[in-house]
Design a protein that fits this description.
Layout lengths: L1 E6 L3 H4 L4 H8 L3 E5 L5 H7 L7 E5 L9 E5 L5 E4 L12 E5 L3 E7 L10 H19 L3 E7 L12 H4 L8 H12 L3 E2 H5 L8 E2 L11 E2 L2 E5 L7 E6 L11 E5 L2
Parallel strand pairs: 1-2, 7-8
Antiparallel strand pairs: 1-14, 2-4, 3-4, 5-6, 6-7, 8-12, 9-12, 10-11, 13-14
Length: about 250
């Protein structure tokens, strides 16, 4: 099975930028999108050319904000949205596709904000999301993918010292949140296979960041320990344009 995860930074914008050609080349069995920035009916209309996939979407109550979509060639047993916690469930950030042997969770983790004004909320989100995943894991193995909005280690961003505890995505609170996922057993699949590789998945649109490769690795596939030996590859498609994030891919025997 090949799963692709991609923060598209606006589904209506990216389809004007070779999006469908990129999807065709990557040949995903399941495609998890984050930050669709559109309502359900708009996502359905824009993605209608991908008629080989079943399309499921979870849009934010607020128009033009957040939102996720899962496109799957195989019909999931069940699709559910959100955590079941009112404080977290209005922004379209979580989808869970249940398959025979595992759960696939598509997530767009909240950004802590330019002024770190949402950092306390983010801390609570991380705690609640981990509990949600561990509860799923009691039944079946879990793969969760998406934009986690955190660079876990100094290797995962270009300017670690300049950003530490100053910039959303690299505060100690957010790092601790990712530590908690890993310490609970979830495996950062890319780092497991590529422990010393410098690779990024996000580049700011400012300061020619992508051209200069001044990036961050904030998009992940986290997997339950029982699935680690089944992983064939994890790929960062840094050459694929269209968003300020690039797609990432997981190939796994399931």
């Amino acid at each position: 099975m090949k799963i692709i995860s991609w923060n598209v930074n606006g589904i209506r914008a990216i389809v004007k930028k070779d999006f469908f050609e990129s999807i065709a080349k990557m040949k995903a069995d399941v495609l998890c999108l984050q930050e669709t920035k559109a309502q359900d009916e708009e996502v359905a209309e824009v993605l209608s050319p991908l008629d080989r996939y079943q399309i499921h979407y979870n849009s934010a109550d607020k128009k033009g904000y957040s939102g996720t979509a899962v496109l799957s060639k195989m019909a999931p047993i069940k699709m559910t949205d959100d955590m079941g916690i009112d404080d977290h469930d209005s922004e379209g950030r979580i989808q869970c596709a249940e398959y025979e042997n595992f759960y696939l969770v598509n997530v767009y983790v909240p950004n802590s904000g330019q002024q770190l004004d949402r950092l306390d909320y983010r801390k609570q989100w991380d705690s609640d999301f981990l509990k949600y995943l561990k509860n799923l894991e009691k039944t079946k193995a879990v793969i969760t993918c998406g934009d986690f909005n955190v660079a876990h280690r100094p290797i995962d961003l270009k300017n670690d010292k300049a950003n530490y505890n100053k910039t959303a995505g690299y505060t100690q609170i957010e790092i601790d949140g990712m530590d908690n996922f890993v310490n609970s057993g979830f495996v950062d699949s890319y780092r497991h296979l590529h422990p010393d590789t410098v690779a990024y998945t996000y580049w700011s649109y400012r300061f020619k960041a992508r051209e200069r490769n001044t990036g961050w690795r904030i998009d992940y596939f986290l997997v339950s320990p029982v699935l680690v030996d089944k992983i064939k590859s994890v790929t960062i498609f840094s050459e694929v344009l269209g968003s300020d994030h690039c797609p990432i891919g997981l190939e796994i025997d399931l």
